[in-house]
Specification:
There is one protein chain. The protein has 3 helices and 5 strands, in the order βββββααα. The chain is α+β, with helices and mostly antiparallel strands.
Length: 90
């Protein structure tokens, strides 16, 4: 019997490796829009975060999202992502 491999992803905030299902995916679409991908299946470049506000704040401070997508991220996008993260936390 074979053991199924669990896909691991690294958090862009704290740098911890966790299973893909435990993480929240941030997505850069083909049009350059940055959104939260709750399903984890949308097309585009993805970056992963732990589902905590601490990791989100670390990612903003260290510019982890900007490094992952290789582009500057406007402040209003961070504000929208923060509101969406707060809703997921409830």
């Amino acid at each position: 019997m074979s053991i199924k491999k669990i896909p691991l992803r690294q958090c862009i905030g704290c740098g911890e490796m966790k299973s893909k299902k435990e993480m929240i995916r941030i997505l850069k679409t083909d049009t350059g829009e940055i959104v939260l991908d709750a399903t984890g299946r949308k097309n585009g470049r993805g970056a992963y975060l732990c589902p905590s506000m601490d990791c989100f704040k670390k990612a903003v401070k260290s510019k982890g999202i900007e490094r992952s997508f290789k582009m500057p991220v406007p402040k209003d996008v961070y504000e929208v992502l923060e509101k969406e993260m707060e809703q997921l936390g409830q």
